[in-house]
Amino acid sequence: MRLILIRHGQTPSNVEHYLDTAVPGPGLTELGLEQAAALPEALGHEPIDGVFASNLVRTQLTAAPLAAALGLPVEIRDGLREISAGDLEMRNDRDSIIAYLKTVYRWVNGETEARMPGGPDGAGTLARFDGVVDELAAAGLRAPVIFSHGAMIRTWVTARAQNVGPDFIVRNALRNTGITVLEAPEPTVGGVGPWQLLTWMGEPVGGESVEDYGDDGPAAEDVRL
């Protein structure tokens, strides 16, 4: 199974560096719409057989051009949503951003019982994303695309890909419309896996014209703690 994970396009909250994780969330900026429009050409070589997005507006808007080009619906799955910021929601000060990122860094180091301040723990957060991936594998999809979020993708890939270590999340940012590709053997009774990370493109698709020059938001950052 080939799994393509794509972060949404730029939002107004990204530009202001807000921890904006609640449903339904903001739409895309003009640049974000341009980033989304560049995806069909960028992924034209992939044998995509399904398009999935979180229940936040920004992923659905980002997925729409690709889905239209493929003649596929955008299927919504709540389990793909961003990691909740809890009590840190809609804050953009450095201390809050560090607290958010420090919590997800603990999760990928095995402390999945740790909770986001006023929010979820790591075990439940990873399990909901796992549930969607297992559903797609059980349905027989061979190359689905998932539109999700910066912190969610970085955390899940670091936790589930066997060929990266816990420090991967610290060293690798994921910019708006950054694409990640993983592969796993055919699913078994126990689920799909183990996963291998093939590519991590922490850059926007479409070249320099759709770069956002640092306005990707806190979930994209490779902050040193």
Count of individual helical segments: 8
> Helical amount among residues, as a percent range?
25-40%
The fraction of residues in strands falls at 5-15%
Label the overall shape: globular
Secondary-structure element string: EHHHEHEHHEHHEE
Which stretches are poorly predicted, pLDDT < 50 over at least 5 residues?
Answer: none
Please summarize what this structure is.
The chain is an alpha/beta fold. It is built from eight helices and six strands. α5 runs parallel beside α7.
Describe this protein's structure.
This protein is α/β, with parallel strands linked by helices. The protein is 34% helix and 13% strand. The protein contains eight helices and six strands; from the N terminus they run βαααβαβααβααββ. A six-stranded mixed β-sheet has the order 3-2-4-1-5-6, sandwiched between helices. Helix 4 links the parallel strand 2 (50-53) and strand 3. Helix 5 (94-108) packs parallel to helix 7. The relative contact order is 0.23. The mean pLDDT is 92.
Topology readout:
Elements: E1 2-7, H1 12-15, H2 30-37, H3 39-42, E2 50-53, H4 57-70, E3 74-76, H5 94-108, H6 122-138, E4 144-148, H7 150-160, H8 168-171, E5 179-183, E6 196-201
Parallel strand pairs: 1-4, 2-3, 2-4
Antiparallel strand pairs: 1-5, 5-6
Helix pairs in contact: 2-4, 5-7
